[in-house]
Structure formats: C-alpha cells, structure tokens
Design goal:
Strand content: 15-25%
Number of helices: 5
Distance between the termini: 44 Å
Order of helices and strands: EEEEEEEEEEHEHEEHHHE
Strand order of the largest sheet: 1-2-3-5-7-9-11
Length: 230
Amino acid sequence: MTTIGDAAFGLCTSLINIVVDSDSKYYSNDENGVLFNKDKTTLVQYTTGNTRTSYIIPDSVTTIGYAAFQACTNLISVTIGDSVTTIGESSFSLCSNLTSIIIPDSVTTIESGAFNNCTALTDVYYGGTEEEWNAIEIGEANESLLNATIHFTDKPECLIGDVNGDGKVNQLDRVALTRYLAKWTEYPEGSINAIAADVNGDGKINQLDRVILTRHIANWIGYETLPYVG
C-alpha cells in the first residue's frame, strides 16, 4: 500500500487502533494506534473510537492532516506539538466535547473548517503573542475557534480538581481521577487534565489527590482557579 486517502477512516466510530506493518515505506503508527506518514511529520488519522479524553501531538509532526480528528467526541483537550505549522482543513471538526487546545507559536496556517462545530471549545492557549496570533492565516468556518477565549501563553490556567475539564469540580472528577489511578485513562504530562488532577500541587498524581478531591467535594476544603506553575 502506497496511499491512504484523506479521511479514509473518518467517522469509523468503533475504530480504536491502527497498526501499520513496520516494513511499510509510507506509513507508521504510534503507541496509541494513531496513523502517521512514515517519518511522522504528518498526522493522518486519529481513531474516532478511541476513548482517550486528551492527546499530545508529537513534536515530529509539522502538519495535521485533513479531517484527522474529525468527530473524535471523546477528546476534551489536545496539545499540539511545537513543530506543527499547518492545522489542516476540517482537522478537528465535529469534536463536540473539545473544550481546550494548546496551539504553539510555530503554527502559521489554520485551514477552513479546522474547528467547525467545536461547540464546547472555550479556551485556546497560544504559545506566542497577540500580534503573532493575528498573523496566522485562519480559513473560514472557524467561528468556534475565534469565539473562544485566547490565552497568549503556552501554559494554561486551569481549575484545580476539574479533572475531566468541564469547568466544574464534582463527583464526575472523582470518577475521572479514579479511572486514571486505575490506569484506565491516560493524562499526558503537561495536559490540562494532568494539571487539574494534581490537586495538592506536589507534582504527582496519586491516591492523596483523590482523598483531597473527595474532601473538597464534601465541602470540607476549597480550591480556587490557579495558574499553571512550571
């Protein structure tokens, strides 16, 4: 096989993993079953059926392909790697639960419909200045992106304890943290989910955070919105 067409696996809602023969000269996959070109400079397809709520795009990637994340409704947050220059057409369209995204200052082009119908998107964390953001070529049908709050920093603010990223701290976050501790869910280092899950701010996510979160939900202790501290 030499060519896989754009969005060839799009809307395959039960597909959770793509594996490419290691001898392939044209394509490859990562440990998460995401499809790339051979040298991993283009992210071709993220599997729609993957239950992961967050994902960090590798730094090798320079281009996010056409409809690469289309209708990945389980995703809540995405961190785009520092080498990406182009966010392709319809790449995140219909990601209806995507609430936040980190975009590096390497991005120069966001193509038409890249964030079309991302109705939950509220926060964009940009790694450059406002002037640099305004210089990005942004195509049409990206109202969800443009209507979000743009934070001009590559380190997001987050609500400590809001593990699932829905803007609230409640029993759903306790369940999300429990799933993480049981290794049913992954939170990449530096993701908003991981920052929020480290409730006591000691740089670790463990049972102590779960205990403190439980106490907070029971109204024994309180937490405020805190900035990320690197």
